[in-house]
Amino acid sequence: MIQTNPIYRPEYYEFLYEKSSRNRILVTAKTLFASLGYDNTSTALIARNAGTSESQLVKHFGGKAGLLEAMLSEGWDKVNAQMEAAFDAAGDLNRRLGSIPGVVFQLLDTDVELKTLILLEGHRMRQAAVRTGLASGYGRFLAAVDRVIARAQADGQFHADATPVCVRSAIVGIVEGGVRDQALASRAGFPANFTAEECSRVILLFLRKLAKGGDSALAWS
């Protein structure tokens, strides 16, 4: 059963002590950030519960901000790997775009702490993508979506006045809004009882309106 409201439990970390200090720091910090909040979690608390020192945290991540960036970046890279596999399996460029919500929701449903961090610290995630570009997992996620949109437009599947960056913002906005609202639903009872499949259908409806030829141009998956 997926834990919908992360609670910090020191005993959770016992199995980590055979792993590298970097991994212990990452896993420990993710749970602490998700349960206590980024601003309320000190590097000393992270190091102590990871069974290591603050100097090791600084060595691997440069500090708390670098640690959060690495955590979010590696989380998005898991999404990216699954999304590329979904893109490869899709027989239609527009179905590739329609597969994005399912991939993102499925992975985040198995990592509630990461979903919580995207809700609470999404602004830092976006700032890192702006600052570091493709060095950021989230930046690589946006670039992958951009590539599919550019290919669809180059193949003449979208109206000429459908600006690719604006299309990406709309699609990513739908996905991130769904992630945010579902995280709020689990934490605060926010009304968001929709599924990834329903979110995918909304994106497909949106794409049908963008496609040349209107509703008849895109088939439902």
Could you characterize the architecture of this molecule?
- The chain is mainly α and 221 residues long.
- The chain has two domains: 8-62, Homeodomain-like (Arc Repressor Mutant, subunit A, Orthogonal Bundle); 71-217, Tetracycline Repressor, domain 2, CATH 1.10.357.
- It has nine helices and no strands.
- The protein has helices at residues 21-36, 43-50, 54-61, 64-89, 93-109, 112-132, 137-154, 164-188, 196-210.
- Helix 5 (93-109) runs parallel beside helix 8 (164-188) and helix 7 crosses helix 8 (164-188).
- It starts with 20 loop residues before the first helix and ends in an 11-residue tail after the last helix.
In short:
The protein has 221 residues and is mainly alpha-helical. The chain contains 9 helices and no strands.
